[in-house]
# Entry
Amino acid sequence: MHSPWAFKYVYEGSFFDFSNGGPYNVHVQLHRKHPKIKDVDHLSPSLLEQWDMILNNQASFEGVFENEKFSMINETLNGFRKLVRSRKIELLGSMYAHTIQGFLIRLFTLKGFRKFIRELLEWEWIEGLALSRRIMGQRPKGAWTPEMFWSMELLSIYSKVGIKYTVLCEQHFRKAGGEKDTIYEPYILEDYISGDSLIVFFRDLELSDWISFNADFKDDEEADIAARKFIVELFKRYLKNHGKICVIALDGENWMVIPTLKKYSAYFLDRVWKYIESSKGIFETTTFNEYLKEHSADKRLNYVPYGSWILLSDKQWTRGVKDDLWNYVLEKTPWVEAYYRIIPEKIRYELIHNERTPVYRMLKAFSIALDSDYYWYGEEKVYQDAVKKWSEEAYKIAKSQLEKIRSRILEERNSVAVIELENNLDHEVELTIFLKCGDVVNRSINVLIPSHSTECVYIPILGKVGCKIEIFASKVMLKEFKL
# Structure
């Protein structure tokens, strides 16, 4: 999964009053200029992995090994590491790929794969948090929820993987249920039945969108005027919510470069930070972790609505050809789920988190196929090809492994059919055998077969003429025998 933007956003850019570099590098430069400023940054695990692979010669990208570019990637990653160690930056974690979780849970549930998609998201979180810890030296406590796409079903997943807090949109807050006051304080979101809970911060939509969509200035003077106006708006919130927290959250790089590079965008943020530093204690930047050490979340919510930061909807990733892409992936899902599911639960965790195993490679490919950025730009062929490439890769791995399980009827007498099952995989598998007469299942048998071995199963068939025996790996039929 090598995106050109993972590297170009490090070394390509020409921002006013900063040395050459892309948004990621400029962010490090900003922190060097403003040592009193703290913020919370989400560096996605897949982004960190790509930087790490390049720096360790485990991957390549056109032009990236040119001395200046390579050095800038190294400088940027080490700059972020230093800022994390010094607590100037709090690192937010996320799942491996950039996935709209709430939407996936709803979509896959409708297709009968609710349990699988929840387990896949959990796998992505475990892998993503592990990558962040390995590369950045710290396991994040908080989560960046991609596209702020929430579903109440995420509460149990976040709790299970150890996430303590996340940030959602003011739009979510407006329709949330519980002890609501203002968005300028954290809340405990709780499932009263399961007991799962999560602290949620809500972003100020107006201030966040101000930076997201209004940072294209004609010159440095206009950028400075905008920074002053921004501070005035921030001060208005201070007057009404003294001592509370105002969260401004948005994409860390897109506001500077999309649709084209905005030359004075970094200078705007530079001036905002300068005015905050010189505010004589009126404003103080902090991190979520630091804030929660001094302030408790007291009010409780029992519901936060489904949806993303885009009007709590999924419209940016659906409709037309985008739905065709989701359906393409869903067609591969039974095979992917089948190979995942035949691995007995007692050994599954170890195998799915071992990068040398086929099941690990399959889950990683399938996760990349579900990366929501591909669907955001789903009208473009290059992203359609990416979805198809990665979902096909996951399918091929699953199919090749399932084909290593063979079966045949050794003997068929009046009363008993003897089925020989051969497992040529490097791990034991669990299959289900059905005896069906018409649409009625007369018998089902779960069979556990050790690796590289055969098992014989005896199935009573007295009076079952015209019936059939079906061998299934989860929802995929591997073989059918007509009696």
